[in-house]
Amino acid sequence: MLPFLKIMFRNLLRGPSTEPFPLGPARTHKNFRGCAKFEPEKCILCGICRHVCAPGAIQLRPSEDGSGMEYVLWHNSCVFCGMCAHYCPTGALTMTDNWHLVHLGAEKFSNCIDEFVPYDECPECGAKIQPRPQAIIDKIGYRHPNRFLLCPKCKRESIARHAAKVHNKTEQAHP
Amino acid sequence: MTTANTTNTYTLPVGPLHVALEEPMYFDIQVEGETVRGVQLTAGHVHRGMEALAMQRNYLQNVTLTERVCSLCSNSHPATYCMAVEALSGLTIPERAKYLRVIADEVKRIASHLFNVGIMAHLTGFDSLFMHAMEVREIMQDAKEGVYGNRMNLGQCVIGGCRRDIDEETAAFLRGQLEQLKPQLDELYGVFERDPLIRKRTRGIGLLPLAEAKRLAVVGPVARASGVAYDVRRKAPYAAYPELDFEVQSDTKGDVHSRALLRLREAVESVKLIEQCLRKMPSGPVCTEGMPAVPRGESVARSEAPRGEVFYYLRSDGTDTPQRLKWRVPTYMNWEALQVMLANCQVADIALIVNSIDPCISCTER
User: Fold this and answer.
1) In chain A, which residues touch B (CB < 8 A)?
2) pTM (2 d.p.)
């Protein structure tokens, strides 16, 4: 009869199962997907984060003087899905375990990541190019790191010069 | 029996906002005394135009969008959507990702079923049992947060595989949670099976006979409790289900009580499935490299959500945005059966019977 009574008394003896936050600490798992964190020095301005962001929380705005891009992520539009962090090729964008997002209503439009990411310069012609931090060199530019730092135009020229050199060498070896 | 009022019957409106309904649903109920004589169902209170939204977002954004169709089956939707996209673009997901998808699906299933039986206890007026069921469910909620990072939207599926791998440490944590859950689940099953209050309120009401279940083509636990042992995981296995050993639960009574017990038995099966996955999971990549190219064409995918079969249809015109994305959710098939289940029941049982199909209105009206 009434098999629940046993459970009820056990639960009563155990006391509350809720955490005493804010008087005590709230347990947060290390895998928790909270507030996004952006490291501008790792960003290559590829825009994949903006492409995969369903709520449109991410904007990349070219600066007026053409020296770089403004990177904006609104925490209030973010749905914490973590797609941006999953697709980010350099790990510039990560999800932290920080869930403390309380702010005043007056700050709702300024509660965002707002960083400036400057363009790199091509070491040969000085043209403005997307930044090439070490993370992306290690990932896709490791075969020819020097050529990887060039702008598209100089890169084509470098490849063409290299191809011509190889061609001339084979011509000389097998006339 | 939905004719105008006569001298003996009157119309009782239930919903769209009603204390006993978890989600907005509107019933015009013809009542004779305390007995229900006819039901008219009006839908559309939580329509958000999600299928139209899906046509304005690219394939990758839609993973997040479909995850937000419904919170209780928030893994079944993106998983099935990803299956449809993968079928169209000819992607094969890595072996490990198949197991990870099963784990995510089953974790969600346990939490969803416990929520439903908890609400059933609440509707019978047995609130301390409701609280206890929710407390047991909290073990699974904690597992979700610890493994995936969120209590509801796991964010596990992505086109081409999964996002988050389960390493040794996380696997140990998940196993620990399951070990905690198992005795609690058994105990809860005993209470739901034997408690005189629960039995009195839920046995023999909301009957759906086998013939009616077949006629209305109901799916999920509603169908299985009426003797139709239909489970997509068995009939059309996907992900890692062909390699896993599990029993399709079924019953023949087809009342509110049997549906609740069936859900609890399925939760026990789900625990076994997760344990098998953690044991059998091969090592390797969890996601394919690069972005899939989705060619022109159409595809379908289906899977077993906690409430039954969920079905996705996708048509692509070769661009990065779907031309059409349509989904049919289990509640759409199941709520028609309410006409049969509610016939001649008592007014006090309406909420219990409605809850026994585990209605998900936000899925159905999206």
Assistant:
1) 1-4, 7-8, 11, 17, 29, 31-34, 51-55, 79-83, 86-87, 95
2) 0.88
